[in-house]
Design a protein that fits this description.
This protein is mainly alpha-helical. It has helices spanning 6-12, 15-28, 31-44, 49-77, 79-99, 105-117, 122-132, 137-168, 171-190, 193-197, 215-232, 234-245, 250-270, 278-294, 302-330, 336-364, 367-387, 389-397. Helix 11 (215-232) packs parallel to helix 16 (336-364) and helix 12 runs parallel beside helix 16 (336-364). 53% of the residues are buried.
Length: 415
């Protein structure tokens, strides 16, 4: 049994995994670039903050509204056709939104909605692959830990790539480049052996609920929303803290500390084997996440806050990996892609609620109130995780949809 970082290198040594990871990085690196670049372009084009916010809202609503529809097409028709279609439409719609920034507002909103709704579903596809490929239990855990590590790197790498593109051109060009990279990642992923061989499973019953007919999945989505709310307070709470204790520019440094902690936490969790099932690990991971969320309340200066954020970041990866694996197990046959799309909806919604409520509390009190809200939300998630631990343990014992009946020690090479 391999241990330590070698667990990741052993996983990545197989081309069946290598190619999806590579194209997944290319396709998802612009996720945090596009919204920032589009905002800057809209402001440069003369739109006010209210109008720019409306366009960005259309982009986000498009993602939320069309995401589940696209995921159902994947579950019904397979991954490559949907990946190719979205990889073509998304960059074209995004380029249209950039070009139409100074034109009729209705056209701009429609293009932004279409661009947001056709973001290539790279994350959903890859997580569905990790759920259904013939991986051993340890390999699957490592794969989901890798997802949590990459998520932290995208948060850091996207804005850095934007800075580079802005140094070479303008915000509109950066937006289009981001769309092209997303499309390239989607097209590349569609050509991989893992994606081509992924088979859509028959669904016993088709209705509007789809993946949401799974009660364990609904519980997991609530847990994800509560955990995302805890993280949603960070931008405003850290900004208020930095303003009180130093410079507002320290926010980037503090978020970077969280990202570094997240990468370390993912490496640690993904490199170890645990006797307990993911269902029984869930309350422990949630409790650790909540305790770490309380750390910022003890900070007295920028450096102590950086340490607290690093610990909080380190607690995110284990909880994320556990929740992702449970989502894959809880998804009904033929709905795994849709299930992971609802994960994105739950986390986005939870984070938005956290930001909104934290803003009200911080305005009325101070930065402490934002972090207190995060701890309370994490505490609710932990209580729920404890209450459903036996049910989730039973879910974790089941074979994920589409997975092989046996768990081989290694993957076949992608030849």
């Amino acid at each position: 049994m391999s241990s330590g970082v070698s667990r990741f290198t052993d996983l990545l040594r197989h081309r069946l995994v290598q190619s999806p990871v590579l194209w997944g990085v290319i396709g998802r690196l612009p996720l945090y670039l596009v919204s920032l670049a589009l905002t800057l372009h809209l402001l440069d084009a003369g739109l006010g903050y209210a109008s720019a916010g409306l366009v960005l809202a259309a982009y986000t609503v498009g993602t939320a509204a069309l995401g589940p529809v696209i995921a159902r097409r994947i579950d019904r028709h397979g991954q490559p056709p949907v990946l190719v279609l979205t990889a073509i439409v998304h960059p074209l719609a995004l380029a249209g939104a950039v070009y139409a920034a100074s034109g009729p507002r209705a056209v701009e909103l429609a293009l932004a909605f279409l661009a947001g709704g056709t973001i290539p579903p790279v994350s959903q596809v890859i997580r569905a692959l990790w759920s259904t490929l013939p991986l051993s239990r340890d390999e699957r855990s490592t794969a989901y830990s890798l997802e949590s590590i990459l998520a932290e790197l995208f948060v850091i790498g996207g804005p850095l790539l934007l800075s580079l593109l802005l140094a070479l051109g303008d915000a509109g060009t950066a937006t289009v480049v981001g769309g092209v990279l997303s499309g390239l990642g989607g097209l590349g992923l569609a050509t991989t052996k893992a994606s081509r061989q992924w088979k859509a499973e028959p669904v016993a019953r088709r209705d509007l609920l789809g993946a949401l007919r799974s009660r364990p999945l609904l519980i997991l989505l609530l847990l994800l929303s509560l955990s995302a709310l805890t993280l949603g307070v960070l931008n405003l709470a850290l900004a208020a803290f930095a303003k009180e204790h130093g410079s507002a520019g320290d926010v980037g440094f503090l978020l970077g500390a969280s990202g570094v902690g997240g990468a370390i936490g993912g490496l640690w969790f993904g490199s170890r084997s645990f006797a307990a099932s993911k269902g029984r690990q869930l309350p422990v991971a949630s409790a650790a996440f909540t305790l770490a969320a309380a750390g910022p309340l003890l900070a007295w200066d920028t450096w102590s806050m950086a340490v607290a954020m690093a610990f909080q970041g380190a607690s995110i990866a284990p909880l994320t990996a556990v929740l992702y694996e449970l989502v894959g197990a809880a998804a009904l046959p033929g709905t795994v892609s849709e299930a992971f799309t609802w994960v994105l909806t739950a986390t986005t919604g939870g984070g938005a609620v956290g930001s909104q409520v934290a803003g009200v509390l911080i305005g009325r009190f101070d930065w402490h109130a934002g972090f207190v809200l995060g701890v309370l939300s994490g505490g609710c998630a932990t209580l729920l995780a404890c209450a459903v631990r036996h049910r989730m343990a039973a879910v974790a014992e089941e074979e994920p949809p589409g997975a092989a009946a046996t768990e081989p020690a290694s993957l076949e090479l992608d030849t």
